[in-house]
Specification:
Chain lengths: ~250, ~575
């Protein structure tokens, strides 16, 4: 048995103790007449999604925003906080933060308040043929063996949750609808590397063509903001190389 | 204020699929494969492929190891389920799972973790007699659902995004004629006419409790829709709780799941005064006691007032050590840090989290129901898991039965164009759904929803008795009456409060069914514990509790379980 800790009860009480004041939140609204400034009571722990829920429950029930899983798997609660695209469920409201400005993702049409239409994002995703085109229709498929050279590139960047943060952070994707953008190019890179896929040539044609990798200015904002720590900028560099010399 | 008449938009397809998780996406792919060119619509309450709980799956149980076979997987499912499973469904799960994993890998393009020799890395999962957890790191659900969603671009069904199902539509012969839905963004009703409908909306029983792992949009819509259409629900008294839900006070991250593995790796569980309370429940095995016993002990301690002030107990992972924690549980350490706690150096408050509704609609092994043209798959269906669910069988159930139901729905819809919905069905439903928007004053949904979750936690949670269940039934009836006069301000388009009102209506219905089923089962088995009937009683209770609707409320019946493949006394294979 571990000896009961004398300070334990006090520590537990402290963690549930009084909230540290309030925070000033400014939220972008679609209706120009809607309230946009809110003073929200803090509690601990608190994430940006808590701010939005508190506003909806205690200040303005009509505030529209999106979330689903709360564990960084669905990628639907992406918003900009003070300009930076983040997952609202994963962004802690630090005790020393006095204010927050919350806006919808850039580069996408706003449906209402913080909800955006992902159509332009998905259109580009679709353009790279995002699904596997199996090499052989029948029989045992080519297996993706962990030690195979292609697996290295794949494993580093596999867990994209299509949250759109990179797309919104990319100045080129927002400005030019023909640019495939970082997320779609990352998906393309994985499929080009995947030896089970039979459409690599066609896909390299797409990513090497108009709106492809040459439109990337290499600034790297996409990799900077990815909440899963993926590196679309590296994926784009790989595709540039592979265009000249395919990986398999 | 009275509402203007509401126009109903019409969509015509062959098969309508409600839900875009593992079951819904697989149903779409298999409907398209069974009948190329078939017109499909997929309705999703949120974004397609990014709603529901499939995306959170950690692993997929499939008997693929050299020392494993579907018989063993099947026996594990049935033994864990206390022999209440529909054994034909459990067999379908175990026997189809290996093939579906292969399909996901080679057809759909999922990348699962493999060993250096190229073989699948099959990991252990508690409760499995063989290592059979197929996984992609800890983001298995993201990989499966991400790739299934990509595959949807290949078949290009009609996607109805932010569209929630309201009611099943039936023709004058009682057969499926489609589904009435609501476009949440635009606030307008949509009548999707279809010869076959697959309900794969992901259950929602877990969302009835204050601490739950479920995703935001789950509210029992599929269960309620089927129940109102007259279908029977089974095993609704069984709700799977897990002990390691994060307790983060008022934060929305309360309920996100840590891993049972942390407990098994040597963490201690402490009550509010720092005592290892498992000593009072299972002194021999302590924190390594079976999963369902541990979660019940946590609940008992909290209920008795021995937890922390905010109704939690404490996970002390310090005995495991930082290096080991960072190595084996990096995701969990990170997840805990989001709640402001360092698992390696601090105590982390945890609470029993409602994870999965085990019960659901009575189906045959192809997802078929007693209504021609209506199919149900995934968490909306009941019977696969019996009295207790095992990790890794959830995403397996969704994909296996989604595939079966999709194929059958396509066959059923071919050559069977939808009939005309019976007179008044659409108008009646639309009137009821829009009523809260037209009322000048009334209660708000959130307050009633909070009271409902409190009642469910106190009286219909992990430990139950007859007086508590009676009082829960009375409370739910009173809340339902209050909910009938809910008023929500604002327009129909993108109105979150109105959506909460519609969620609540279904949650109250499902809560009443859970309580009715729990009252009927006068024994203790799996996740259902009755302090007034504390023993498992195979003599009387190898029976399943079935609930169906009537104008006077739930009608409860019990039926003997058919032990078609395995009997309780059978030795281990």
């Amino acid at each position: 048995m571990v000896a009961p800790e004398p300070a334990l009860a006090a520590r537990v009480r402290a963690s549930a103790g009084p909230p540290p004041g309030t925070i000033e939140v400014t939220v972008a609204r679609s209706d120009p007449a809607a309230q946009r400034d809110f003073r929200v009571e803090r509690f601990r722990p608190m994430v940006v999604l808590d701010l939005l829920i508190a506003i909806q429950r205690e200040h303005d029930p009509s505030l529209a925003f999106r979330y689903s899983c709360r564990v960084a798997a669905c990628g639907t609660c992406t918003v900009r906080v003070d300009g930076r695209p983040v997952l609202a469920c994963q962004t802690i409201v630090d005790d020393d933060r006095r204010a927050a400005r919350i806006e919808p993702l850039g580069g996408l049409p706003v449906v209402r308040d913080l909800i955006v239409d992902l159509g332009p994002f998905l259109d580009r995703w679709r353009r790279v043929t995002p699904f596997l085109v199996p090499v052989g229709a029948d029989g045992e498929p080519g297996r993706a063996v962990p030690t195979a050279p292609d697996r290295g590139a794949i494993d580093e960047d596999l867990d994209c949750i299509t949250c759109g943060a990179c797309f919104a952070a990319c100045g080129m994707a927002a400005a030019d609808a023909s640019f495939l953008g970082p997320a779609a190019l990352l998906r393309a890179m994985i499929l080009v590397a995947d030896r089970r896929d039979g459409a690599a040539d066609a896909r390299l044609g797409v990513v090497g063509g108009d709106g492809g990798v040459d439109f990337c200015h290499g600034i790297g904002a996409c990799s900077e903001v990815c909440p899963k720590g993926l590196d679309p900028a590296r994926a784009i560099r790989r595709l540039r190389r592979w265009r000249l010399r395919p990986p398999r | 204020m009275s509402l203007p008449p509401v126009d109903v938009e019409a969509v015509d397809v062959d098969v309508a699929i409600i839900g875009s998780g593992g079951a819904g996406l697989m149903a779409a792919l298999h409907a398209a494969a069974a009948a190329p060119g078939i017109r499909l619509a997929i309705l999703s309450k949120g974004i397609v492929g990014r709603s529901g709980c499939s995306i959170m799956a950690q692993g997929y149980n499939a008997a693929l190891g050299p020392d494993d076979d579907p018989e063993r997987h099947f026996a594990d499912v049935v033994r864990a389920g206390g022999f209440l499973n529909d054994q034909e469904l459990a067999w379908a799960l175990a026997s189809d799972a290996p093939g579906v994993v292969r399909e996901l890998e080679s057809g759909v393009g999922c990348l699962f973790d493999r060993r250096a020799d190229g073989s699948l890395d099959l990991a252990p999962f508690p409760g499995q007699s063989r290592d059979r957890k197929v996984h992609r790191g800890h983001l298995t659900g993201v990989e499966i659902i991400g790739r299934l969603r990509d595959a949807l671009f290949r078949i290009a069904p009609r996607e109805l995004v932010d569209v929630r199902a309201l009611e099943l539509l039936r023709d004058d012969a009682g057969e499926t004629a489609g589904v009435l839905a609501l476009d949440i963004r635009r606030g307008i009703p949509v009548a999707v006419r279809a010869g076959a409908v697959v309900v794969a909306a992901g259950g929602g029983t877990a969302s009835l409790y204050p601490v739950a792992t479920a995703s935001h949009e789950k509210s029992g819509d599929g269960l309620a829709l089927c129940y109102r259409a007259g279908l029977e629900l089974r095993d609704m008294e069984f709700v799977q709780f897990l002990s390691v839900g994060l307790a983060a006070g008022r934060s929305i991250v309360t309920g996100v799941l840590l891993e049972e593995g942390v407990r098994m790796a040597g963490a201690h569980l402490l009550d509010g005064s720092g005592e290892r309370f498992m000593a009072r429940h299972d002194p021999a095995r302590m924190e390594r006691a079976p999963r369902d016993d541990v979660v019940r002990a946590c609940y008992t301690e909290i209920h008795a007032g021995r937890g922390t002030p905010d109704r939690a107990v404490l996970l002390d992972a310090r005995p495991i050590g930082r290096a080991e924690l960072e190595r084996r549980f990096a995701d969990i350490v990170a997840r805990t840090r989001k709640a402001g706690r360092d698992l390696a150096s601090e105590l982390v408050p945890i609470a029993p989290a409602a994870h999965i509704g085990i019960g659901g609609v009575v189906i045959d092994p192809d997802g078929g129901t007693s209504i021609p043209g209506l199919f149900v798959a995934g968490e909306d269906a009941g019977g696969v898991h019996g009295a207790s669910w095992q990790g890794g069988n959830g995403i397996a159930e969704s994909t296996v039965f989604g595939a079966r139901a999709g194929a059958r729905a396509a066959e059923s819809a071919l050559g069977h164009p939808p009939g005309r919905p019976g007179a008044g069905q659409i108008a009646d439903a639309v009137r009821r759904v829009y009523a809260p928007l037209g009322r000048p004053a009334g209660p708000r949904p959130l307050a009633i929803a909070r009271e409902l979750r409190e009642v469910m936690w106190q009286e219909a949670g992990l430990v139950r008795d007859e007086p508590g269940l009676r009082s829960a039934a009375t409370a739910i009836a009173a809340l339902t009456e209050r909910a009938d006069s809910i008023a929500v301000p604002g327009p129909p388009a993108s109105n979150p409060s109105w959506q909460e009102a519609l969620d609540l209506r279904n949650q109250l219905l499902v809560a009443g069914i859970v309580v009715a089923a729990a009252g009927a089962r006068r024994e203790t088995r799996g996740m259902h514990v009755r302090t007034d009937h504390p023993a498992r009683d195979d003599g009387r209770w190898l029976r399943t509790v079935v609930v169906r609707g009537s104008p006077d409320g739930p009608v409860v019946e019990t039926r003997p379980v058919v032990l078609s493949r395995l009997r309780p006394e059978a030795p281990a294979p």
